[in-house]
Amino acid sequence: MSAGILRFQCPVCRDRMQFRMQMHILGIQIPARRPTWEDKESYEKLYEMHGLCDVSECLYTEGREQAEEEGPWELLVCTSCAVQGTHRHCSSLSESITSWECDICAGVGTASSDEPQLAGPSTA
C-alpha cells in the first residue's frame, strides 16, 4: 500500500502490466499515487542543517547551540558527512578556512583544517 501502483509488480518476475491486470481481475485495488517515501515531508529532517558545536569542550560562552554568521564563532559543518559541527575558535581554525572535515571523516589523528602544521598521519 505504501508503494502505490508505480511499484506494484510481480514479486517473482517483476512484470508490471500482466500482474496488474491479473490483480485487478481478482479485485485487488492499489492506489494510483507515488510511493509514500517519495513525499517531500519524508525528507524534511535531511534538509535541516546541523546546528551545534560537537567538540568535547565548546569555548563559546553562549553555548554549543549558538553561532554567529562569521568570525570566530561561525559554525562550520563537516563537508563530508554534515553530522558534526564546530565553531572556528573551538577547533583553532583561521578565518581563511572555508571548509572543515570532522575527525571521523578525515581519519583519526588527522586534521582537515588545511593548515599543514595540524595535518599528519594517524597513529591510531
TrEMBL record:
Any coiled-coil regions, as ranges: none
Ranges for domain PHF7/G2E3-like PHD zinc finger: 48-106
Residue ranges crossing the lipid bilayer per the database entry: none
Entries under Pfam families matching the protein: PHD_G2E3 (PF26054)
Protein name as it appears in the record: PHF7/G2E3-like PHD zinc finger domain-containing protein
